[in-house]
């Protein structure tokens, strides 16, 4: 691995891309420590305690600790990710969007522009919810129990500007750096929390938990890598075609179906749905809504619903990104067929049945990875379990594998050995 990194730095073009990526990530981390206008040190201290658990704890993890300091990057990359997921969902519902997705680069530019506008809209809505939530947390430190309107407007503008700036930085990394920019920003946010969390564990005399959790994380990483690389390969045979004096086709290949095709998206969806009542209760102040939000933020009901939602969204998202009918139609047009299965509807039904069977173990794995650390954290109140939880490790491993694969392809193009020999 060290040799592969050394080879990457020997190539001027790759070296520039890697250093550019590191520079953008460093700039992102600086913005996570600049508080919005109108927030004092006492407020930041109180927010640090309020954002250690529940939905706010997970959002704080994804923002790299920016939420607990009420920084300009408090919303993190989540508005962009949410809008990207919504756009993927809309492509299956709105024919115009589906047509744009099939147009190539010009259609993708249109979809990207709509995604950007939607990110700003979501950033606006989430900023209002965040201001209302933090006003509730800081009642004792605020005059009349709330920010004045000028301060609210400045905070709202700061958070939206931070969201737009993060979106721009992520796209810059994707275009001019190495790896997927949005994924790398989330990766850096999670990794940035580890040193501080370990120091806190040692200060609280929880060093033995730190050692045990890090040791357990090693085996979790192995399981996640195995699950990320796991595939169900459906064999495909192509018929021979004679064009002039040349023979085409007649070769065998396979369709790779990932065991966990949805990746971490079902966890994000499930968390968003369960945290929605918390945002509503902060905005409305209705008593029964606060009771519902508290019930949905911890305890057996939260664990059960989290598991059910992850299973549901795993099947739902996999069905959206993978269309067996289109795949069967493309195979038929190219003269391909699955041995023992008739072309057309029988092929699409066969692929759909295989996909449904392999999605279940992948969904159950996601549920275990997300729910078990949450249960342990809520029962023991050990912050390490939240930082080193299965969700954060799953994201880190997935992003690391994706980035290494892209760097591997760049090295192979230049006749160097990569990471995976």
Give a written overview of the molecule:
The chain is built from 17 helices and five strands. Helix content is 72%, strand content 5%. The mean pLDDT is 79. With 421 residues, the protein is mainly alpha-helical. A hairpin with a 2-residue loop joins strand 2 and strand 3 (246-248). Strands 4-1-5 form a three-stranded antiparallel sheet. A two-stranded antiparallel ribbon has the order 2-3.
Helices and strands, with pairings:
Elements lengths: L1 H9 L1 H20 L9 H10 L3 H9 L15 H14 L3 H7 L3 H33 L11 H28 L4 H23 L3 H23 L1 E8 L2 E3 L2 E3 L3 E7 L6 H20 L2 H9 L4 H22 L2 H10 L2 E2 L7 H36 L2 H5 L2 H24 L8
Antiparallel strand pairs: 1-4, 1-5, 2-3
Offer a few descriptive terms.
three-stranded antiparallel beta sheet; 72% helix; 421 residues; two-stranded antiparallel sheet; 17 helices; Preprotein translocase SecY subunit; 2 domains; mainly alpha; single chain
Overview in brief:
This protein is mainly α and 421 residues long.
Number of strands: 5
Q: Pick out the low-confidence regions.
A: none
Main sheet summary: 3 strands, antiparallel
SSE series: HHHHHHHHHHEEEEHHHHEHHH
What CATH calls the topology of the largest domain is Preprotein translocase SecY subunit
Could you say which structural class the secondary elements and strand pairing correspond to?
mainly alpha
